[in-house]
Design a protein that fits this description.
Helix content is 43%, strand content 8%. It is mostly helical. It has one domain. It has a three-stranded antiparallel β-sheet with strand order 1-2-3. α1 packs across α2 (50-62) and α2 (50-62) packs antiparallel against α3 (66-82).
Length: 119
């Protein structure tokens, strides 16, 4: 794919995400979905999901637009703050799926999530 087309597609995708960005939470708001495990959340329409927010942050940085950089860093700081950093806990190094549900409330936490979020 040529670079101009790639950049235009990236910018269009960023524009589609724009209404879903919550500046208070500093995360993307997405439709709630679950495979039926790892979460105790129920009857939610929308949640703030960690992985899609990270994808959005990377897209903002990849755009090369300086105005997007601060938002990307806000998202990264928010998601990083949700990671378990206590090496004594079984959940060390992983993130919750959703801002609304800390690791301690997940049933059980998803250890694979660290691989998705960390990459």
């Amino acid at each position: 794919m040529n670079e101009t087309l790639h950049r235009n597609l990236l910018l269009k995708r960023i524009e589609r995400w724009e209404p879903d960005y919550n500046p208070t939470a500093r995360l993307l708001r997405v439709l709630f979905s679950s495979p039926g495990y790892h979460t105790t959340l129920k009857n939610k329409d929308y949640v703030h999901s960690t992985y899609p927010s990270l994808v959005y942050a990377v897209a903002l940085l990849d755009s090369g637009i300086a105005a997007y950089e601060a938002r990307a860093f806000d998202i990264l700081r928010t998601v990083i703050s949700l990671q378990e950093t206590d090496p004594e806990k079984d959940t060390y190094g992983i993130w919750p799926w959703f801002w609304e549900e800390p690791l301690s409330q997940m049933s059980p936490p998803d250890w694979n999530w660290a691989d998705f979020c960390g990459r």
